[in-house]
C-alpha cells in the first residue's frame, strides 16, 4: 500500500538468508508444519508449503486461537487424469503450467515460446505485520515476491505480487493477478457486486454462485461505473444483514481490472483479481519488475452490515491520505448548476456571498474558467485563466472567498484534450491513437496519452503552477470518457500494450508529486459521476463524486449501493434544484436530509432561491454541523433498504456511542398506513439518550424526549411519515452513559 518501499533485487537477497520472524507477531511461521498463520482482528488466514514445495491455502475465516488445530499443507490428489493435482490443490499463487486449469495468477510467454510456469517456494521474511514470500519458476530465473500485510484493527489482509524478470531477455506477462483467495470448500454461496451506468451507478446485484466463472471487470482503462472492483460472498442466501459469515474484498486499481469468482467441479470457490488480461501483454525487459495492484480482503461473522462497517473503518484509518479519514469534510458549494459555462468574476463573487450566508465552508468554481472554454467543444488542454471572464485573474475572487470564511476549490480535467485547443494543434501526437486510424471523440474530447512521460510532466507542471500561483485548497478532478484507440505509436510495437498499466501509474505519479509539493491540497475524484472510485485512487484523494444523478429519490438507492463498499465519509452529495432527473420535484427538506447522509454539498442556483428556502437551508446546514462527525466517521446501520420498498432508513452511531443519527424517507403513503417503528442498532443499551426529531418542514427541532438505548433498540421509534416524499431525521445524544 502507500509508503511501501521495495528494493528491486530483494527477492534474490532473500534466497541467501534464513527466514526471519517472531512468535509475537500477527504473522507467524510454524517451522514444524511449514505453515504461515496471519491473525488480524477477528480473522485467521492460514497457508503452508506443501509436499511439492508449492504454497497451498489452508484456511480463511473466523479467528482460530490454536495453531495446532491446523495440519500441514498436503497437495490434493488428482481426479482421474483430467484434473491433475495442480488443479485440485488450492495454490496460493498459481502459475499457468503443469496442467493448471483453474484461473492462474500469472501467465507468461518467454522469448523462446515457452509458456509453462511452475512456481515453487524459495524463502520468506517477516517484519511485524508484513510478510514477503519469494517464489521462483522451477527452471528459469523468473521470480515472484508475494506481499502480505495484515491490519489488526479491522482484520483486513492486503496482498500484491512483484514479478521480477531475472532472465537475460524480455518476457511478456499475459495475465498478472494480485492474489487468489479461497473460501471454505462447499456450495450454496451467494455473490454480491455493484454495477451501473452513467447516472445510474452503484446498483447492488445478488446471485448464487454456480459452477464455472463469473467475471467482474472493466476494460475501459479506468475503474468504470459499469462495474466496481468490490465483491462480497456469503452462504445460503442469509437474509440477516447483521449476522452470518461474509467474505469480501476490493482491488485497489484505477485502470482496467478484473475479478473472477470461480466454483470448480470440486466445490471449491476461489477469487482471483488484478490487472484485466483483456488486450494485455506487459513487456517486461530483463532485470525489470512489475508490481500488481493491491487486493484487500476481509471476513466477518456480522453479516453484510458488518462487512461494510469494517471496510468503512479501514478506508478511513488506513487508506485515505494524510489521516483525512479521521477529520470532518467541509460543506461545499459548487457553482456549476448556477452558471454552467457562462461564468465570470462578478457572478462568482455574488454566488460566494450567498453561499457564505448559508454556512458553507468551501466554494468551488466548476468548468469554464480556462482557455476558450465557452462550451464543451473547446479549451481542454489550455489551462490558462480566461482573460475575458477573469481580467484580473483568479486572485480577487479567491481573496473574497477567503474573507467570507471559506476556502477555494476549482474544477480540472487533466487527462483530456479538445481537438479545438492550442495544445492539440501543437501536439496532436500526445493524444491516444493508432497511426492511420480515426480518433474517436467522446464529449468532443480525446484522451491524452499519460503513459508518455513527457505528457505526464506537462500535466504535472500546469497543475503545480495553477496551485502554486493561486491559493487553491481543493481540486475537483474530473474524467469524462473512457479509452478508445489505446495506441502508443512512439514506443516499439511489442511494448505498446504497456499503456494499460503505465497510464494509471502516471496518473498516480502526478497526484503523488502534486500532493508532496502541496501537502494541504485536497482532491475529489470525479468521473462523470462514480467512474473512478477504488482503493487505489482513494489513497490519493479525500472525497469522490458518486453520481451525476443528484435527484434525491434516486440518490437514496445510489448512496445505499455505494456504502456497501465505501465509507460515507468520502461520499459527496449535493442539494440541487428541481425538477431534476426523471422530471421529479421533491421538497427541499427531503433533498437536504438525503444529501446529509455523507459529505454535504450545495449545487443549486442560489440566485433563484426565495427567502424561505434560504431560511430552511440555514437551519438544515446548522443541523448537519451538529451531526457530521457521526455521519462521516461513525458506524452505518441500514434499517430499511431503499431497494426493497416504499420506505428507507439509515442510522449512524458515533464510535463511543454518545451520538446516533437516523434518516428516514417515505416515497408515498397508501391506505393511511404508517410505517413500522424503527428498531435502532448499535446503541449503548444502558445509556439514556435525548432524542430530537428534525422534520425539516419548518427548519425547527421538536422538543427532545429521553429514552434508554434498550428501549430504542427493542421497542423502536416512530417515524410518523405521511403523504408523498416525506422525510425525518432523529438526533440522539447520550445524556447518561452506562
What does this structure look like?
The radius of gyration is 27 Å and the shape is globular. The chain starts with 9 loop residues before the first helix and ends with a strand. The protein has 13 helices and 36 strands. With 738 residues, it is α+β, with helices and mostly antiparallel strands. 52% of the residues are buried. Strands 6, 7, 8, 9, 11, 12, 14, 15, 19 and 20 form a 10-stranded antiparallel beta sheet that branches. An 8-stranded parallel beta sheet has the order 28-27-26-23-22-21-30-29. α5 runs parallel beside α6 (395-403). The longest helix is centred in the C-terminal third of the chain and has 23 residues, at 611-633. A hairpin with a 5-residue loop joins β32 and β33.
Short recap of the structure:
With 738 residues, the chain is an alpha+beta fold. It is built from 13 helices and 36 strands. Helix content is 20%, strand content 30%.
Structural class determined from secondary elements: alpha+beta
**DSSP strand count:** 36
How far is it from the N-terminal to the C-terminal residue, by CA?
39 Å
Number of helices: 13
Mean pLDDT: 95
Binned strand content? 25-35%
Radius of gyration from the alpha-carbon trace, in angstroms: 27 Å
Sequence stretches where pLDDT stays below 50 over 5 or more residues:
2-23
Sheet with the most strands? Answer: 10 strands, antiparallel
Q: How helical, in percent, are the residues?
A: 10-25%
Tell the overall outline: globular
